[in-house]
Amino acid sequence: MLKDLSQHIESLIFTAESPIGMEEIRDCLEESFGLQFHPDELDRTLEEIKEKYQQEVYPFEIVEIAGGYQFLTKGAYHHTVGIYLKQTTKKRLSRSALETLSIIAYKQPVSKSELEKIRGVNCDYAIQKLLEKELVSITGRSDGPGRALLYGTSPKFMDYFGLKSLDDLPKPKDFKEPENQIGEQASIEEDYQTTSSGEEE
Question: Where are stretches of biased composition, namely Acidic residues (predicted)?
Fold first, then answer.
């Protein structure tokens, strides 16, 4: 086994802006060293790394998320980190965007007309913002008249909300618990306004 293999894997996970998959890790290592690495060898090494960061001395750990691996802060430090993020985050999702995103997450694939039927207002602006933030993507077209575009959540959505899969979404019965809400509601100044025609600004 390559000396310091674990350190090289750690450096890749630490450097990656989003969860990095094992295949990508292997490709980087093989190109870097001109060697072939057996998947079992990399899996064992990664498990050793994960076990290492379970020690209390480390405030972060390696977590499998969105089909890859990423360094994340341990739960004991979430409150402190959360305060920092609140202080530094300038742009949050508006209420309209959160509502639209929630419907897409649970109803996907879903068309704009279906979204507007559920929300009761025009969703053009909210969908545009979610597409710009790459939290949703166009997944195809419906089979109905007009072949409307269908929307679904993106890999970035999984990363953004710390989900391994859509199965990790809060169940409808859990919605009464504030801590299970998706995202953070924006302030009144950032929230949407509804015109007399029912279109969001």
Answer: 187-201
